[in-house]
Amino acid sequence: MAEKHCLGFQEEKEWTVDEWMKNEGVDEYNVMNDQWLEIITSSMALGPEKEVPRKIQMFLMASYNLDTFRQFVFKSKFFERFTVPSALKKKLAVDDIELMKFSFKWLKFSLFGERTLQIKPRY
């Protein structure tokens, strides 16, 4: 039954669910969402209670404000402290998808202490 408020019924093309999902990029979205879900459903502890507020701020920034996360990475001493290949640095500067993937690694490192990033030897 065609609902009056749904403009999709006015379109000539009919889509299967699979066609629509591919057209809308749902597969790519699901891959990114699955990585984020690993973080938000983790049973790992955040560490000492006094560190939790700072970790929550980091979580919010890296999860919901990629522009600020990009500034954090590029305008802090991040690259002095962590080994990040130059090709990846270039991608992080301009590619939001790569930055988001990197933010997941950063969150696992900063929230749970997972070894997803390599600290430079002098640190």
Count the strands?
A: 2
N-to-C CA distance: 64 Å
Give the count of helical stretches.
7
Biggest β-sheet description: 2 strands, antiparallel
Strand order of the largest sheet: 1-2
**What is the global morphology?**
elongated
Q: What is the radius of gyration?
A: 19 Å
Mean pLDDT: 94
Summing up helix and strand content along with how strands pair, one would put the structural category as mainly alpha
Percentage of helical residues? 55-70%
Order of helices and strands: HHHHHEHHE
Strand proportion, as a percent range, falls in under 5%
What is the domain total for the residues? 1
Quick rundown:
Helix content is 62%, strand content 3%. The chain has helices at 17-24, 26-40, 52-64, 66-75, 78-81, 86-94, 96-112, and strands at residues 82-83, 118-119.
What key phrases describe this protein's structure?
123 residues; mainly alpha; 7 helices
Describe this structure in words.
The chain has 123 residues and is mainly alpha-helical. It has one domain. 62% of the residues lie in helices and 3% in strands. It has seven helices and two strands; from the N terminus they run αααααβααβ. It has helices at residues 17-24, 26-40, 52-64, 66-75, 78-81, 86-94, 96-112, and strands at residues 82-83, 118-119. The longest helix has 17 residues, at 96-112.
